[in-house]
Amino acid sequence: MVAPRITPARTTPLRITPTVDVQPTQHHCATPRILGRAAVAVAALLAACATQLPTPGMPQPSPAFPAIPSIMGPSTQDVLRNIVTAQDRLYRVAGPLLVRNTDLCKGNARNLLGFTAKNRYSWGTELSDAAAPLYGVDESLQVMGVLAGSGAARVGVRRGDRLVSAEGKTFAQGQSAERQAAIILVPMVKTKNSIKLVVKRDGAELPLTVPLTRACDYSIELGNADNVNAYNDGRRVMITRGMMRFAQTDDELAYVLAKEMAHNSLSHATRQNMSGTVADVIDNLMRVHPDLTAMSGASGIRPTPQELDAAADTLALYMVARAGYNVDGEIGFWTRLATQYPASVLNGYTAIHPATAYRMDVMRTIVADVKSKQAARQALAP
Hints:
Elements: H1 76-99, E1 109-112, E2 115-118, H2 125-135, E3 142-146, H3 151-154, E4 162-166, E5 169-170, H4 177-191, E6 194-201, E7 204-211, E8 213-216, E9 219-223, E10 230-232, E11 236-240, H5 241-246, H6 250-265, H7 268-271, H8 275-285, H9 306-322, H10 330-340, H11 349-352, H12 356-375
Helix pairs in contact: 1-2, 1-6, 6-9, 9-12, 10-12
């Protein structure tokens, strides 16, 4: 929903997000996107990266979301366990937002299979030995999560299933398995309504026809920084690990995810000529060793005008409600965030979203409107 790395930077040609744009791109994340930008996605296939060491001068984790220990000691399994825990949380919370708001994403929607799949190399070579005993992964791609309500869930895809083939094409194994799977799956996802998979479960091969699931075309990333912030560049949403800790409940994390999705849907980064600047920030925070000196301020991101912020808040509130999350806590969450991390904290959320009072006034009106429509069983739309 997604971070330092443990291995040398490597290129992952295809993203594994709910999108189907397969332009090659370079990533530096210990958890590369598997199977291409729409292949085996859980609605929000983020390329979450490992957290290594606390960032000097940035907020430290609260007890509700413990720090990920250093990878330099004997705690490699703890490192990986925390990475996967963060990934799972982001996938789970982002999934309903992406699947139930395709019409609010302003045409930015794509098909996806509705599950994540990884093998032992998906978190980098230095974590591959820890991945095997923790999650039972080996050279083959194994389902790690299934999106609730997706076509994959309906036909019985399960965590632990190993991918054998798609439409008769056998999946590769080993370090290139993700890239090879993307080559197989991305064209299918673009042109088909369902895909015939064969998975191995309990030693036996099982054929499954998986209906594709429509979702908003946004990649969800976990940022390798302790500042409490979130970013959008028009096609990606990044939540820093500091924000992950601050958002104590799934509802609160949904508020942040939906807000960044709404900015993307409304093309705000493009309208502010900030897409390139924010993209650089996201790319930096996905590296093995991000340039933390760039995180001492706002990283060149200009504050969002209050009218744009309020428009994103409005759309986000409807997204949150349509995804089944509770809008009652929205105002309290954003108020608490602005109080604990005011605009004077230059690398924090409020510094680039400073119109707190204006936003709260708009949100009060929209929350009332959403609740009124919910009570009257009316369609939830701005």
